[in-house]
Design brief:
With 291 residues, this protein is an alpha/beta fold. It contains 10 helices and 11 strands. α1 packs across α3 and α2 packs across α3. The termini are far apart.
């Protein structure tokens, strides 16, 4: 390559933005759609950038394009630089964020997020909060929501995390259930990654109620079933906080089981490059940690 390759300094910002979009999508047409341009214009800007650098960034083939070794090395640098430039500009000249989006499992929105938002909303009265309910944990990676409340051990690739609450399980039942002995009530089975009744018995040495016929796959459904008087749940004290406070459920005087997992607020590493977003995030974490 020749011509533009002799120039010094930085290539035009527009070329870098096009390269970042094309490299992220692995497709010139998709990049053009995102940027509101044409495939031909994207292709020309990529070629201009390659001539400027004196190196090919993409391998063109009949079935599409792929990054060269130089392109793969250059893409993270360009992406990080563009993000820092955008966030720095926002910090210096922009207004505070006008909207944030937060994704969570529906049951976690109901029991962990929404009941704790009041102090945060009071501090940010003009901030629009957009809540997205996620049907399955596997769907988190499919969406582009920056802030996510997740259940686990705090380690997700490409994301930072702040622990909101450790998971603690303890037997609970409906306050309206009449029984002289709690062991006369059936145990509600909760399928999934949380420890179950057998683990509770093994670690606490206590006696569990006999298994019932009801089996659910979410803590939200398990708590609701217990509230309706359908059995005893080994319930999350965090998620059941307001049900316990309103006497819809009662906490039995039985041992608690502390788990290795917990509830975390997570965000992409680039989110906190902005000081305004960092302050907003810190306040949100503080609100969601309310006991």
């Amino acid at each position: 390559m020749s011509g533009l390759s002799k120039k010094k300094g930085l290539p035009p910002l527009d070329w870098l933005k096009v390269f970042e979009a094309a490299g992220r999508h692995g497709n010139f047409t998709a990049a053009a759609q995102e940027l509101g341009s044409t495939q031909a214009a994207v292709s020309q800007r990529i070629r201009n950038l390659e001539e400027w650098l004196g190196r090919p960034l993409f391998i063109r083939a009949a079935r599409g394009v792929s990054l060269t070794v130089e392109g793969e090395s250059y893409l993270p640098l360009v992406r990080d630089t563009l993000r820092r430039l955008e966030q720095g500009t926002q910090d210096l000249f922009g207004k505070s964020p006008g909207e944030i989006r937060l994704a969570s499992l529906s049951s976690h929105l109901d029991t962990l997020v929404l009941p704790r938002l009041e102090p945060f909303v009071r501090d940010y009265p003009n901030l629009r909060l957009v809540m997205d309910s996620v049907p399955l944990r596997s769907a988190f990676d499919e969406g582009g929501t920056a802030l996510q409340v997740r259940y686990g051990r705090g380690s997700w690739p490409g994301r930072q995390a702040a622990l909101l609450h450790a998971e603690v399980l303890q037997p609970m039942m409906a306050a309206s259930t009449c029984a002289e002995n709690w062991l006369d009530q059936p145990a509600i089975e909760l399928r999934g990654e949380r420890p179950g009744w057998s683990e509770w018995v093994r670690k606490t040495g206590a006696t569990a109620p006999e298994p019932g016929l009801l089996s659910v796959d979410s803590m939200g459904h398990a708590l609701r079933a217990a509230r309706l008087g359908q059995g005893i749940v080994l319930g999350s004290r965090v998620l059941a906080r307001y049900l316990l406070a309103s006497d819809q459920l009662i906490l039995l005087k039985q041992p608690a089981l502390e788990c290795e997992d917990g509830y975390w607020l997570t965000w992409p590493e680039s989110f906190t490059a902005s000081k305004k977003r960092r302050r907003l995030l810190d306040r949100l974490v503080e609100a969601l940690r309310t006991e």
